[in-house]
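[Q] Does anyone have a clean structure-token version of this?
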Amino acid sequence: MIVTNAKTIESKMKMLIILFIINCLLTCCGVLMKSTIIGGLRWPLLFFSSVISFLFLQGILNLKILQLENTGAIFSVKRYHPLKKGVVFPVAEFPVYSVRLLERQKSILEDNIIITVITDNNVKKQLKIPVRCLHDDDFKKIKISIEPNP
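[A] Here you go.
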């Protein structure tokens, strides 16, 4: 079973790129038509537009697709940028029997998935993975697929 937030992240990336392009076009129009802008507002508007462009660009660069995969024997976590091409290597891979707990921490600013794993030496390890735009239903599906069947 594979659970991913790719469609949501890709649509968010497209929206941010469109907003970035619109902001850049408005900035270029403002520079070309500077005679129509009041003299005292030219530099503050240019600075404000540059800051907004930087924030859009930072938002695009910080987007990550999360892919949780349970093949039945191996549980793998992949996290990559939407523009990444080629082979995507997993951030973590565990045997399904060693995964003890899969939980989600939600807060206002952050959303994380915490995976608790027991190693062969009975050492408990936790992996904290930042998540964006993963639906609750998808998380429940992957959590149910990991739980052992009695």
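[Q] Thanks! Anything notable?
[A] The chain is about 40% helix and 30% strand.
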